[in-house]
Amino acid sequence: MAGTLIFLVSLCTVLQQIQACPCDEKGTTCNCKETNIEILDQEIGSNFITLDFENTNLKKVKAGVFNKANNLTNIKLNGTKLVCDCDIMYLRSWLMKVSAKQDIFQARCSSPSILKNRLIAFLSNSEIECQGFCSWVIVSQSVLYAFLSVHGIIIMALVHYVRRKEKVDKNFARTTQLQRNCFGSTNAL
Q1: How many domains does the chain have?
Q2: So which residues are the signal peptide here (predicted)?
């Protein structure tokens, strides 16, 4: 009895996190059609078997949402307004992982226009724009290039300094030797 109460309390918390989608009495099948969820960003618990977002305004599913949803075998995404940007990578990966358990041919892109109506499960990495990630990579590569360039310049300057010092030391030694040969011992002066 206490275990059931804990289960219901944790289930209630998860349901509040997904804006209280009406669920069956077991709390395993939830119909989210009447909600205005646009971003699913709260982790779904292991209790859920079916989530129905069909024909809703769902645009994004954040990474990690389904990490604990081991029993989730049916998620209806037909007619959603999913944006196929970098954030879609997680949902695509999850759909492919559970493809044997559910129909992966429901989730389609609504935007950007070039990807409209494309199946999310079959998008290639090159089609999905991850501008934030790409710009981060470009910035980090630029910083690394600048860092290596500065170090290269410093190394070249040190090599030049060492060679110059060796040349000066060699000239000094030769001049000293010439003075000794010409004037004899330096103690005589």
Answers
A1: 2
A2: 1-20
